[in-house]
Amino acid sequence: MLSASLISVLVVLGHNPDTSYARVKIEPDRIETRLTYDVFTLLKITPLDDSRDGQLQRSELAAYAPRIAEFLRSKIGLAISDEDESAHLGEFVGFVWPSDMGEVIAGADFHSANGLIHFDFLRQVNEPPEVVAIAFGFFDVFTERHTVLGVFECQGDKYETSFTNFEDSFEYVTGFEPARPQTQHTLGERLWRFFKMGVEHIFLGYDHICFLIALIVVSRFREIVKIVTSFTIAHSITLILATLDVVRLPTRLIETCIAATIVYVAVENLWVKDTRHRWLLTFFFGLIHGFGFANVLREMGLPTVGLIRCLLSFNLGVECGQLVIATCLLPLAYALTRWKYGHIVAMGISILLGLFGTVWFVERAFGFE
Question: Is the pTM of this model over 0.70?
Answer without folding.
Answer: no
